[in-house]
Structure formats: structure tokens, C-alpha cells
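Handout, section 4.2: multi-component inputs.
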Amino acid sequence: MAMSKTAGKRTWFENIRDSPVPWLLPLAVVLGVTFLFPVFEIARLSFTDASLIDEDYSYTLESYLDLFRSPYFANMLQATALFVFASVFLQMLLGFLIALLVDQGEKRGMRTSIATRTAVLSAWAIPGVIIGIIWSILYEQSAAGILNYVLSFVGFGEVPFLSDPQVALASVTLANVWRGTAFSMILLYAGLQTLPEDVMEAAKVDGANAWQRLTRVMLPLLAPMLFINLVIVSIETFNTFDMVLALTGGGPGRSTEIAALSVYNQIFEQFNLGQGAATAVLLVAVNLIMTFVYIKFLERNERVE
Amino acid sequence: MSKSRKEKLTRMGLFLAYVVITLFFLFPIFWVLSTSLKSVPQLFASPPIWLPTDPAFGNYSYVFNNTPTLRYLLNSALLVSLTVFFTVLIAVLAAYGFSRYAFRSKRPSLLAVLAFQMISPVVIAIPLYRLFSELNILNNYASLTVVYVAVVLPFTTWFLKGYFDTIPYQVDEAAIVDGASRWQVLSRILLPVSAPGIATAAILTAVLSWSQFVIPFILLDDRTLYPVSVGLVNLQSDTNAVTLHYLAAASMVSVAPVIVVFVLLQRYIVSALTSGAVKG
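Output:
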């Protein structure tokens, strides 16, 4: 294949005779072994009655049927849905507010804005299990519990943060929002900085007030960023495991046993591999559907080459 | 209201908001730090002691001498170093391939890599547990590192591919015309130019791997091999209200390395986190 001097730059690369395979091979091997194989394997296991301790199994649909019939399944779905909706909503709202405030301060040259950004981000850098432990110390219901002490001033009785099923789910969500807000904030903060200055200025000159500038100019311009944020945060939240394990272990009862934790408990606590695998398949399906939506969106915005 | 007065009020409002936000995000960390410096009676004091005047640093020496926390920290350091090395190596090669070659399955391959990133590690850990126990490679850092690498690899590959894309390929072209091999183009030209990007990828891989929990939690059952995340959960299950200060001290010790790295290198991390979404 001769190099063509008249062809465009792209074709120069297309004409080159060597192949990308050696460069991509290590990546393909590592991802193949650790992702492709397990995903197929978990799908296969979901159609069996396998248990973790007993090697023999046969193929059946019972895992799925048992799962759908189980009262815990409906509870798990409900807890997961509440946890994900509340977390994502609050995290994006808070993240956006903080991004706006930090951006405004930065434009005014306030150094405290950077300090604030760092404080928010340090929560994100802490490993999930340690976040669970930190919040379990805050939620402590003995005399050592600080949140209950503070709340008693505002006229609250003792709040059963981790011992009441409904309160526990809210407590887990709050800890998760504390952890995740940084991610939304930093994405939206970056988005705010890409907004064209002249458009914002023009809106101001035309007499739009702050609220109109926010809702009619800023939000539409930020819409793609908000959507990307929404999808990534939803997937992350769906997959939450370590923080909740350390904070409640899924309890009290099974009230905070959200999807990923439920997969783990079914397999390693109840040794029900088939049913746990069936739950895992549903979790992967949700992940892949959201990823598909995400990819379609990226393609429409031509962000993938 | 005059303009300057309005501006002053805005600044005051912003400052107030910053105080509230910073308090909300730093208070939990501050409280754990304070707990880690208390004696047992101080833990239960009412009204609570915000910061003990006679800090019990002995809690930290207790944690180092009477719990395996130091061992866990060293294990984490080893796992993270191995993971960073191999992740960056494999991601650089793959990023070069994706950035510098045009091939038909490029788009689907890139999207497949992205999809892997979205799959919960819990899901892959279970079949891997069965596979590893069959092959007798549970409790093995070599096999564990492969999984650690795989979990961060999709992100790192995408990030570095994006970085290489910003370097014009006329540079490669010129070198190849001069007789350089592709390997030389990568090692002598692209790598030096993208040093900041590679450093960012390494930092982020380190922070993410330090936090890794599910994978070692399921694939290790030998306590002496636990990284700090799994070790702490173990320590937590042995903790009751009376040993809360030790748990707090152990938590502070395990968080300290990430926080230090994070605050010092914040600029790089922020740029990495946002690059995927902001640049095209």
C-alpha cells in the first residue's frame, strides 16, 4: 500500500499496514478475563439452583421465579428505588448549588471559594467503607452520638438513625449524598466555566434578572452536562455497596439492603448462588440499559470518535 | 441600593454559604478526628467534648501496636503500587492503539470498554471467587492485582486516549517519515509530551484503588493479606461503643494518605474528573 500524498491526514493512518492488535491485546485480555467471563458466568448461574457450598446443580428457571415471589425482592426494589432517587436528586441539586456558588466566588476572586471546593472534594476521596464508619460514629445512639446531641437542642427526641427501618434508609441516603455531591459539583462546575461569557453578558444587558438568566440561559446551555451527570451518578448509586455495608450491613432487618448488597447477602450469607446470580443479572441489565442511553446521548453530541 | 453596596452584600452572602457548606463537609471528618483523641470517659461526656484539651495520642500507638492496621496499610500500599504500574502500562498501550490507528471495530471496542466501567464490581467478584478457588489462586496478590487493574482500566484508557488525541499526529507522522518505529514514536515523543496526563491517570488510579473494597473483600479470606479498607470493616465488627476511639484513630490513619495526596494534587484530579465530560 503506497502512501498517497494527496490523501487527507486520516487516510495516511488508514493506509499504514501494521495493525492495532498488539497495542490493544493486553487490555482485551485483562478485560476479557475479569469482565466478559464473569458476566457470562453469572448469567449462566442465574439459570441454575446452585449454592455456594454444594457443587452439584441443575438448570432451572426457579431462581427467577423464587426471586419474584419473595417478599424481600419487592422490599429490595423499593429500598433501592428510594435510595437511588433521593440520592441522585439531592446530590445533583446540592452539587449544582455549590458549583454555582463556587463559580460566582471565583469570578469575584474570593479565595475562600477554592477552600470550599477542596472541603467538598475531600469527602469524595475518602474510601466508601470509611465513610460508612465515619457516619456510624456520627449516628451513634449511645451518649457518644453527636448528631442526637445536636438535634436535642432543636427539640428533637432521640432519633433512631440506624435502628428504625425507615429512618435507617434516610440515614444511609444522607451519608451517600455527603459522599457523592462532590462528583456532581465538580462536573457542573467545569460545565459552568465553559459557558460563553458573552451570552451571559447579553442576557444581562437585555434586562434578564438573575432567575431568568439561570432558568432561560444557563440551564438550557448546561442541559447536556446535567444529563451526563444524571446517568453517571445513577449508575454509581445503583452500584453502591461498600458504604452501606459498613454503615448498616443492610439492616435493621433487611430495610437498607439495596441491590448490590442484596446480591452479596443472598450468595455469601444465605449461600443461594442461583438467586443471587439472578439478582446480579437484573443489576447488570439496569447498568447496561443506562449505559446504552448514555452512549446514544454521547453519539448524538458527537463526543465519541 | 448602590451597586457597590449590592456587591458587598453578595460577597457576604457567598462567604456565609461557604461557611455552611464547609462545615457540612468537614464536620464529620473533624468529629472522627476529635473522637480519635479522646479517653473513654470523654467519649460519653455530656455535654460532648468538641476537642479534648489533653489529646490521647496513645490511641494511635494502641492502634499501631495492638491491631494489624499497620500491616493493612502496607498491604494497601503494595496493592496500589502494583495496580498503578500495570494499569498505566496497559492503558498507555491501548490508548496509543485507540488514538493512533483507524480500524473498523474501533468505535464498538471503545464503547465496550466504557460499558465495562459501568458494571458493578460485586457482579464480577462472585464468578471470580468461584474461578479463583477452583484454580487455587484466592488469597493471591498476583490474581488480585489483575482484578484491581481491570476495575480501573476502562476509565484510565479513555482518559489517556483523550489525552493522546489532543497531541497532533503530524508529530508522529514526521518522526515515522524520519524512520522512527511506532514504539519509538510512543516512548520518545508522545510519552514525554503527555507526562502530566499520565501523572494524573496514575494519581486517580491510586486514589480509586486505595478505596477498592468489594474485590479484596470477596477474593481474600486470609486476614494477614487484607488491604486497609477490608481490615477496617473487620476492625469495626470487633468494635463496641467503648472502643470507638480506637476505630476512629484507625479510620484517621487510613484516610490520611488519600487526603494528603488529594489536597496536594487537587488540580490534576479535578482536571481528570472533568475531562471526560467536558472535552469532546
